[in-house]
Structure formats: structure tokens, C-alpha cells
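Show me a record, fold above all:
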Amino acid sequence: MARDITSAFNTAITNQVVKPIVALELDFSDGILRLWNGYGNLTMTVDGSSQTFTGQGDMLGVSEVEESSTLSMSGVTLTLAGIKSSLISTALGANYTNRNGAIYLGLFDTSSNVIADVYTLFKGKMDVLNIQEGPETAVITLKLESRLITFERPANRMYTLEDQQVDFPNDLGFEFITDLQERSIVWGKKTN
């Protein structure tokens, strides 16, 4: 499978010393949350635009990202520990189900600068979020489901004029569908 990486990224990943960055982008209803596995704020180019990610230190965990040659729908589990109370209130209060989430892989060069255009490891929809509170810290686990899961959902669309006009108000292609419901159509015989 082809990968879209820059030549600088390719050079850095084949070096003897590799300095990886793992970053998350989670689209909660009250704002997009961007985290990375280091300390402080870090600006990276993601999908052609510059974004600032907040450091979460070494408390960021990502389960194995699986890839197959078939259309399988494997998800990813994110683990956040030692987090701020503001993140817990966001997790408790904001809508997240079926909203976008992404995991990015970036690299530092030898001068600790981020190499242009980080690589997208996984994009999916946020599904289940659990918070486990302990005496010292809280741990949040969040499941990201593959975008392929939408193929399992029923379309819930009708072949009616009203349903067609939801997306295409001027389309009259289904205008005579109701007339065809009880109509008898003779096919292949001579009629009088």
C-alpha cells in the first residue's frame, strides 16, 4: 500500500536514531482537543495546516493500530492518565459519540524541530469513553472506531419524492413513484 510521506520524513524514519511524536486530535462538541506525547506546546503541520498540540507527557497510550488487505474494521483504544481536571470535565460534559478522532505520527529532526507534514496513523469516530478515578489520578480510555463501520449502518433512506428533496430540492425524479405502487405493467405481451 502506498504511503504519502515527504522525503524529509522518509529520511528521518530511516536514520539510526528516530525521535517519534504521537499526537491525537479529538473533536469534542465543545472544541477540538489536540494532545501529544511530550511536554509543553508543539506546533506541527497536519493535513497541510499548522496546529498546536498540548503536551501530555509520557501518560499517553495508544493500542496497536492494525492494518489488513481486507476491509476489516479494527478500532484503536487511547489511554490518557495524569490529566488535568478540565479534560475530565470535557470528557464528562461534551458530546463525543460518532465525532472525529485522529492519531498522527511525527518525527523530530536532529535539531528537535518537527519534520514537515506528520503522518496520519488512524482516523475514525469516537465511540466509548470510560473514566476510572483513583485516589491520586484519573485514567480516561477512549475507543476510536474505523470509518469503515459506517458501512454496517442501515441507510434509512426511502425512494420517495420527499426523501429525495431533502438533499436535492429541485429534483422531481421520484415524482410519479406513488402512481406506480398499484399499477399493473404488462411486459413482453401484445396489449389491446
About this structure: The CA atoms of residues 122 and 128 lie 17 Å apart.
